[in-house]
Amino acid sequence: MSWTMTLDEIKARRPCEESWKKLRKSVGTRKPLSTVVTLEQILESNGVADAQWALRCIKGHDREIRLYAVQCACMVRHMMTDQRSIAALETATLYAEGLEDGAALSAAWSAAWNDARSAAWNDARSAALSAALSAALSAAWSAARSAAWNAAWSAARNAARNAAWNAAWSAARSAAWSAALKWQAEEMGRMIRGEGVYDRSWADNL
Q: Does one domain contain both 71 and 52?
């Protein structure tokens, strides 16, 4: 299956006005709404954040998208201080591969949520720690609660926020945010091309 969608499918999902105008300008403002665009086009014209949002229009790639969610969450693996959050990522990976069922994924999500609730939210690391936990929760989000695209979008956003929050100064935070988005864009490109998500070596640090 291809990584494509129509302009009409995107519009039906109510994109923000700025992103919609940017895409229309790139595709051609006179093109009909039936025009097919690729996820790679959106990535190139609008950037990774809009491309992650557009995953909601993609059909037939739940496995790859959920593995992408885990990859994004693994960016902040070092901030996860409780085994329950780490286990949630592993379970999400197994679920994507068809090796665990929805019940196991839901149980892992619940355990990770208990980790998040018991964390010391008010200590010096609270902002970064909460983003790391949120990334794990998003990646392990039960299929009964959320689609794979939502898991990926949320995990990516939370992981990028953590990368920025974990930096000490404003300039460093901006650089960390940019670096995180650049990495996510590269990984999305690999996903679209059928690379990376089929190679589980990236999960060795789980």
A: no
